[in-house]
């Protein structure tokens, strides 16, 4: 999943270990903030974000920030309890983590009784079925691909708006939901912890405008939402702690303000005056501030460093940059030291040479290109010469933030040295992924970051490099390098059917190596995400699944 500056969209120790997928955080229980005061009920938490959420509609959201905020509003079939030393999968709407049968091709979940929406009506299995069916409508695009990949009949189903149902999702009674899959999926119950596997009551579905009208069955509901300005959440009075094993309802309101400059947010929270004391950020600290803030002893207790099994990378569009030698030259030419500097230096993460990060099942240590992170200019120039010394002009897509623009400048400077001219295309951060994921908007080079959707290589490489999905998801294409290599596709199919974890992981390692042989991407850094809160914010849990500061237990000190 990515992170809007931690790409959303999001991998693997063991199935129960880190889920780093959506941008992830350090393990570990609640960390309070520093400062005096006891955990209290009431008050307002202010969330300062540089941009609005790409989506909050649970079937469309695929960024870590949006998914983290959705945890306050919607409940999913399963979820992650992150109060212990490692994330633990638990039942959320469901009473437990589901029961597989018929070789993990059928999954059954039983819903808790008494979970209520914001109007006091009860959440039922048909509401979850309807929610999942929304994934398939072309009006509800941008979300993860798993429902259409795995549910029987998903390839031809077009969503519920023409009155048609998906037969492979069955609700034998009000509290039971059964999914029939077209292949064995041993970790399907980790997929169901993602926001889209949640209930949407048909009567309150507003289709493509549901982003601002999400109907709550969580502790908080939308009070008001002015896009790109402010979202205010208030208590859902029908939510009950006794039915919810994951969340608490400590503050009265959450006030999310959008549109301030990244560095301005950092400085405000650092200064810790006025409402900044009860504020938190969801986007990571700006690259220009990170090195200084990471080492500031005064921030101890309210600085969260969340290691993400995630990767920050540059995708090379293989259908536009067709010559393998030119792509290999780019691999050697990029100076990862200046690139990492734009994101904040060593505090941001270690240099990457692979697309799977250490700590993910399937990770294999290798490096096909420069041993020196600052690149190998001689090798890059030699490859350009072999390619006939072209002098191409290339476009690079980045978010329109100072951090990303500094990153783009670093790429431009490196590539000019080998005769490639670079035009920078800055894109509004709130719409970045919906823009670059639409096949109508193609660039030669595209910045991306990815955090596993749950702790497994299966949520990284197949999602980012299965070329057959490009045509299938033209408005939600995650394959930013447009790679469609039969060798990679064959390995994807092979890994999907493997039940032996060691064999499967070895296949993912092989796949990673083939992708790098294709020079489809330049891996830049294995990411950490760093965020801060004010001194009167307590109960923040570093969420290693989303690489976000989780707000599920947050409170304001009085």
Automatic annotation (TrEMBL):
* Key words, A-Z: Signal
Please list the residue ranges annotated as the Solute-binding protein family domain. 88-467
Q: Which CDD domains match?
A: PBP2_clavulanate_OppA2 (cd08506)
Q: Which domain of life is it from?
A: Bacteria
Q: Name one GO biological process term.
A: peptide transport
Q: Where are the transmembrane segments?
A: none
**One cellular component GO annotation, for this chain's record?**
ATP-binding cassette (ABC) transporter complex
Q: Which GO terms describe its molecular function?
A: peptide transmembrane transporter activity
A Pfam family cross-referenced in the UniProt record is SBP_bac_5
Q: Which residues form the signal peptide?
A: 1-26
Mitochondrion as a keyword of this entry, yes or no, is no
Family matches, as InterPro entries:
Peptide/Ni-bd (IPR030678), SBP_5 (IPR039424), SBP_5_dom (IPR000914)
Kindly provide the name given to this protein in its UniProt entry: Putative Periplasmic oligopeptide-binding protein
Report the source organism: Streptomyces azureus
